[in-house]
Specification:
- It is a single chain.
- By secondary structure, the protein is an alpha+beta fold.
- It is 50% helix and 27% strand.
- The protein contains 3 helices and 4 strands, in the order H-H-E-H-E-E-E.
- Strands 1-2-3-4 form a 4-stranded antiparallel beta sheet.
- Strand 3 and strand 4 form a beta hairpin.
- Helix 1 runs antiparallel to helix 3.
- It is rod-shaped, with a radius of gyration of 28 Å.
- The N and C termini lie far apart (108 Å).
- The model has no long low-confidence stretch (mean pLDDT 82).
């Protein structure tokens, strides 16, 4: 007697293999997707901090009268050159960074100062707004 040996894959085996693959692949996909979203958010926080620190450093290095001339509200167009360039570079990459700063002139006991409150806002992956803030004081010498 001759036995017929057929080697092949049945439809049931293929369906079972696809189901096992899906069970493993879907959670893996979500893990990688979540990780990349977190990386983008951390990158945006770092960029916002870079813009704010650049703004603070430039204000710190300008003379008091120049800083005083900026007025009470500072937007992206009034930024000192390096801060403005950092903002433009970040907007080229993500297109959603907004810079704003308020300056409050104070004079107490013969010392003139300006309190700055700066903020950078951007959009999160879920559509909500996030921001980084920085406050500092410029004192006339």
């Amino acid at each position: 007697m001759k036995k017929n040996k057929k080697s092949g894959v049945s439809l049931v085996e293929i369906i079972l293999a696809v189901m096992i693959f899906a069970i493993v692949a879907i959670p893996l996909y979500y893990a990688v997707s979540y990780s990349s979203n977190e990386e983008v958010q951390l990158d945006k926080i770092a960029i916002a901090n870079k813009i704010l620190e650049s703004f603070r450093d430039e204000i710190k290095n300008l003379d008091f009268e120049t800083v005083k001339a900026y007025g009470t509200t500072i937007d992206g167009s009034q930024l000192p050159p390096n801060s403005f360039q950092a903002l433009l570079d970040s907007q080229k990459k993500y297109k959603d960074f907004k810079f704003s700063a308020e300056a409050e002139h104070k004079e107490a006991t013969g010392i003139e100062s300006i309190l700055f409150k700066a903020e950078v806002k951007w959009t999160l992956a879920n559509g909500k707004q996030s921001s980084q803030k920085l406050s500092f004081v410029k004192v006339q010498k």
